[in-house]
Amino acid sequence: MTDFLQLGIRKEINYTLKSLGIEAPTPIQERTIPSVLEGKDVIAKAQTGTGKTLAFVLPIIEKIDVHNSDVQALILTPTRELAQQISKEIKRIMENVEGINVLAVYGGQDVEHQLKKLKGAQHIVVATPGRLLDHIRRGTIDLSTVQMFVLDEADQMLLMGFLPEVDEIIQESLSSPQTMLFSATMPNEITTLVKKYLVEPEFIEVKAKKV
Ligand code: ADP
Ligand code: MG
């Protein structure tokens, strides 16, 4: 049985995962983590509840340079609940890892609070598209340093009408980062977006049961 160490995850994180009852990678994690660590663009399709969050969170954490205070990873997600959930998950996983900061940016939360946080070093930003665009337009966030970009729950983004905002964020703010797209289904509009922005992506599809 493959474990997280064999996939390239450091032992401090493997230890935390175990303490959380997460012993073995799910199929989507097993196939996605090595490719992301190699720096490949990835399209991962797997149904809800198959562990897609850790499939991108774990390799991203491995690749963050704590000696560099720039925003290095951007995770876009359709709802504030998901943004909160993912940033909480990242903090939980980093219990035994020093120095990586994560900030959630979403609508409905006090902008002043977000502005104050944005002044400090934030390595990972988890955001909803609308509020992130507000910050981009105000000039209060610099995403030109982002090296890893995740579009999470891409089909939900489409359903909620966020693809134009996603498009604007990619075009206006990002400088060709490694890109990862995660979705339960792959409608045409998503395929079009993939073709526009991903470079020789690896397509990973898992037809598995839920965790
Ligand atoms: P998805 O994004 O595919 O819908 P999530 O990433 O939200 O799924 O994961 C669903 C649940 O499975 C979460 O509660 C998560 O903590 C749990 N989980 C993720 N990976 C594992 C694993 N390898 N072993 C056990 N539980 C896991
Ligand atoms: Mg998910």
Task: Explain what this protein looks like in three dimensions.
The chain has 211 residues and is α/β, with parallel strands linked by helices. The protein contains nine helices and seven strands. A seven-stranded parallel beta sheet has the order 3-4-2-5-6-1-7, sandwiched between helices. Strand 3 (102-105), helix 5 (111-119) and strand 4 (124-127) form a beta-alpha-beta unit. It is globular, with a radius of gyration of 16 Å. 41% of the residues are buried. Magnesium ion is lined by residues 52-53, 152-153.
Order of helices and strands: HHEHEHEHEHEHHEHE
Strand content: 15-25%
Bound molecules: adenosine-5'-diphosphate, magnesium ion
User: Structural class, judged by helices and strands?
Assistant: alpha/beta
* Poorly predicted parts: none
- Number of discrete helical segments: 9
Average pLDDT confidence is: 94
| Major beta-sheet overview | 7 strands, parallel
Rg on CA atoms, Å: 16 Å
Q: How many distinct beta strands?
A: 7
- The termini sit apart by 16 Å
Sum up the overall morphology in one term. Answer: globular
Please give the share of residues in helix. 40-55%
Major sheet: order of its strands? 3-4-2-5-6-1-7
Motif (Q motif): 2-30
Domain DEAD-box RNA helicase Q: 2-30
Keywords: ATP-binding, Helicase, Hydrolase, Nucleotide-binding
Domain Helicase ATP-binding: 33-204
